[in-house]
């Protein structure tokens, strides 16, 4: 095949390809081995889907953005600015061909699903609807999820889908990036019947995505919110601070200081900071003052105030976002915002306590909710791989042989003299790289 990202080369028999890939899919899901004619992009996606413990018999996707929140989420998303263009380019194609136009965010959560009414009703049975998450880790191989994972246009034909429920569909999707920053914004997808298994449909959706990027390039960038600092510290050893239009990567000690100040808007005295930051009680206030002086040189004079030490401007952080969503009972949204343990390499006493509080809060909520998709996401993340309690909850919600085998393995390790605790690990083996 000349283009590995196209499902069917010109002249191929779609019925024969469908049959052969179905046999390959059955073999892979039963034995984990491959047979021709599986494309490498599909084989790689099937492997990822299997590692994520996606069941090929999953019935429908999980709706993560409820209707009450969907309107505001769409309005704030950058792709809302190009939706009129996307509708103009794809409207007649989708309606006349009984196809769907779908637009998702960078986490593969569908924001818009539009097109032929009959196709929408049919797609709704598997929750291919606004608010549902179609990431590979949730629904296996599918065009929007795989296009985001590979960060390039891809076509998925019928039985190439990992989940059998989706194998009656063929889809093509292309990622969309912010032309000003290069940041991945989401993807544009065309979903329909097997007539979409043609090189032209992939070229078409790629052209639509490029048109969206060109339109965004002509528009002024969304202005940065002035007078607000934004702190990102979950899942990374060195926090990021966005302030005054600049993104700063902080040292570990400066990250710890700003995390504590962000979670104490009332401010902290020098003694409180000293106790929160240093395990060694012999560290003197002079050491802390020197560190704060270096931090002010990095940030500028108007970010951190003293007497007490505090942020001198409003600050938003991923820490408070997770805790706010947990407090409101928005468990799916809280889990989606949790990128990993807080500053996992830090041993500052106050940071360690905060790290445990946040992780345990999310973890306990997931166990109480008993949603198998949310539990699977946690269990297959680096920080949840050895979390016996979560695996047991997943086993109760989704009793598959692979989950049962993992539970037995963890229970055996726990029973051994050097067995591990079923508490969530304090730090993952790896953290998110700086972007």
From TrEMBL:
Domain of life according to the entry: Bacteria
Pfam family, one: GAF
Keyword Transcription attributed: yes
GO MF entry, a single one: DNA binding
Positions of the UniProt region annotated as Disordered: 414-435
InterPro entries the UniProt entry points to: GAF (IPR003018), GAF-like_dom_sf (IPR029016), OmpR/PhoB-type_DNA-bd (IPR001867), Sig_transdc_resp-reg_C-effctor (IPR016032), WH-like_DNA-bd_sf (IPR036388)
Transcription regulation listed as a keyword: yes
Domain named OmpR/PhoB-type: residues: 245-311
GO biological process assignments: phosphorelay signal transduction system; regulation of DNA-templated transcription
SMART domains per record: Trans_reg_C (SM00862)
Keywords: DNA-binding, Transcription, Transcription regulation
Coiled-coil intervals: none
Name of the protein this chain belongs to: Transcriptional regulator
Source organism: Streptomyces uncialis
């Amino acid at each position: 095949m000349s283009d590995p990202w196209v499902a069917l080369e010109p002249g191929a028999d779609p019925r024969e390809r469908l049959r052969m890939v179905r046999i390959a899919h059955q073999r892979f899901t039963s034995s984990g081995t491959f047979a021709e004619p599986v494309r490498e992009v599909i084989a790689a996606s099937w492997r990822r889907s299997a590692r994520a413990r996606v069941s090929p018999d999953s019935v429908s996707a999980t709706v993560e953005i409820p209707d009450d929140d969907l309107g505001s989420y769409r309005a704030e998303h950058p792709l809302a600015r190009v939706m009129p263009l996307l509708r103009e380019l794809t409207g007649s194609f989708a309606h006349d061909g009984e196809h769907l136009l779908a637009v998702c965010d960078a986490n593969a959560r569908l924001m818009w699903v539009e097109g032929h009414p009959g196709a929408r009703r049919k797609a709704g049975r598997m929750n291919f609807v606004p608010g549902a998450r179609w990431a590979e880790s949730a629904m296996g191989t599918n065009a929007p999820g795989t296009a985001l994972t590979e960060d390039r246009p891809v076509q998925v034909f019928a039985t190439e889908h990992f989940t059998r429920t989706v194998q009656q569909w063929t889809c093509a999707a292309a990622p969309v990036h912010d032309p000003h920053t290069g940041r991945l914004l989401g993807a544009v997808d065309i979903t329909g019947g097997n007539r979409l298994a043609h090189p032209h449909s992939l070229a078409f959706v790629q052209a639509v995505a490029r048109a969206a990027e060109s339109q965004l390039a002509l528009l002024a960038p969304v202005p940065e919110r002035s007078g607000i600092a934004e702190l990102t510290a979950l899942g990374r050893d060195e926090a990021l601070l966005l302030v005054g239009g600049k993104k700063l990567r902080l040292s570990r000690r400066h990250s710890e200081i700003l995390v504590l100040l962000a979670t104490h808007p009332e401010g902290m005295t020098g003694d409180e900071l000293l106790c929160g930051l240093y395990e060694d009680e012999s560290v003197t206030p002079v050491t802390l003052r020197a560190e704060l002086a270096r931090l002010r040189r990095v940030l500028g004079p108007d970010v951190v105030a003293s007497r007490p030490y505090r942020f001198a401007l409003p600050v938003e952080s991923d820490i408070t976002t997770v805790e706010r969503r947990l407090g409101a009972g928005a468990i799916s949204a809280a889990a989606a915002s949790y990128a990993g343990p807080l500053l996992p390499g830090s041993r500052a006493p106050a940071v360690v306590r905060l790290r445990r509080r946040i992780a345990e809060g999310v973890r306990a909520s997931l166990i109480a909710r008993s949603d198998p998709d949310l539990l699977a996401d946690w269990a297959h993340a680096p920080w949840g791989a050895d979390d016996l309690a979560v695996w047991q909850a997943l086993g109760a919600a989704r009793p598959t042989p692979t989950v049962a085998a993992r539970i037995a393995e963890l229970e055996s390790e726990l029973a051994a003299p050097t067995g591990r605790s079923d508490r969530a690990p304090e730090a993952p083996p790896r953290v998110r790289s700086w972007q």
